[in-house]
Design brief:
There is one protein chain. The protein is of the alpha/beta class and 305 residues long. It contains eleven helices and ten strands. The protein has helices at 9-20, 43-53, 73-88, 104-114, 156-159, 171-174, 176-182, 190-199, 206-216, 270-284, 288-295, and strands at 2-5, 29-34, 61-66, 90-95, 98-100, 121-124, 140-143, 152-155, 220-224, 229-231. The strands form three sheets. A five-stranded mixed β-sheet has the order 3-2-1-4-8, with helices on both faces. Helix 1 (9-20) links the parallel strand 1 and strand 2 (29-34). It is globular.
Length: 305
């Protein structure tokens, strides 16, 4: 699996410590991709992370990939994922502000094993938009928001379709139905994010392009009903996360057993679609666009300003 880091040593430590407490940590090869400092003010923090990475234990192996120049998140993710997924045929990905439940790795690996031959399933995530009160009668579900960056996994035979250019995104300009569907029934303005990605050189998101790739293939992603991942980046430490008293989708990590209930049918149930829309609308207010960036399409990278 891969962990992408930049300039937040305390967040990185929390992420790795939680991951090391996972059931399958000792069977997991961990690759830490450490981006180089964009500015001198970040150099000491980058060095601290790299020194810490050299002391990490609790995994089958730990490999530090220390970038010699600043890549930014999009390039770092695209090149790092391509390298590892082509080596192993599959990959699990975290960023440095995500804290996992101890059953996270088991869920991700079980999902990768279970749906390996299902081309309509293009990914697994340990993140759920739902709180504990959702009341759905199953432990995991499929949905079509296939670009989340809050933990994800995929296979080489699906990642090979990743479309960096997204040159056909303009189909949405004249096709209102296509645009509405991309916007998850107009719950979120993903179209606006895609337009910024394609026309604003300051925007450089890998996730919106991954979402578009999978959207065009009518794909699905597997999520747990109760989140196995919490985002701890809403403390002002990241350039783009900002600071919030109420972190977005802060549902805790309360699952106390491994998830054994996986969908037999590939598709998004109507009750899931309705619940997703309610959750997205509720949690995205009042600053919807800002929060979308960090759920599905992070803008740039914490190392880019």
């Amino acid at each position: 699996m891969i962990l992408f880091t930049y300039n937040r040593p305390e967040h990185t430590r929390r992420t790795i410590e939680a991951l090391a407490a996972n059931e399958l940590a000792e069977e997991t090869e961990l690759y830490i991709f450490s981006d180089a400092a964009k500015k001198e003010a970040d150099a000491a923090k980058v060095r601290e992370i790299r020194e810490y990475a050299g002391r990490v234990s609790g995994f089958l192996s730990v490999t530090l990939v220390a970038r010699e120049e600043n890549y930014g998140l999009a390039r770092n993710v695209i090149e790092g994922v391509t390298d590892i997924v082509n080596r192993y045929g599959r990959v699990i990905v975290l960023e440095d502000d995500l804290v996992t439940n101890r059953f996270f790795l088991r869920f991700m690996n079980d999902g990768l094993n279970r749906y390996e031959k299902e081309q309509r399933v293009t990914g697994i995530t340990g993140f759920s938009h739902f709180g504990d009160e959702i009341g759905l009668p199953y432990e995991s579900y499929f949905h079509t928001l296939t670009g989340t960056s809050w933990s994800w996994a995929t296979w080489a035979d699906r990642w090979k379709y990743f479309d960096e250019e997204c040159s056909d995104w303009t189909d949405m300009v004249s096709d209102a139905k296509l645009r509405k569907r991309f916007n998850y029934d107009n719950t979120y303005d993903f179209y606006k994010i895609m337009k910024m990605q394609q026309t604003d050189e300051k925007t450089n998101s890998w996730a919106i392009r991954w979402y578009w790739t999978n959207f065009r293939r009518n794909a699905y992603i597997l999520s747990p009903t109760k989140s196995l991942v919490s985002n701890e980046g809403w403390d002002g430490s990241g350039v783009h996360c900002g600071k919030s008293k109420e972190p977005v989708f802060n549902h805790g990590l309360k699952t106390d057993h491994p998830i054994a209930d996986f969908p037999k049918e590939i598709g998004e149930k109507k009750e899931v679609h309705r619940a997703m829309k309610r959750a997205l609308i509720r949690e995205s207010q009042p600053n919807m666009l800002k929060r979308i960036y960090h759920v599905v399409a992070r803008r740039n990278y914490i190392g880019k300003s």
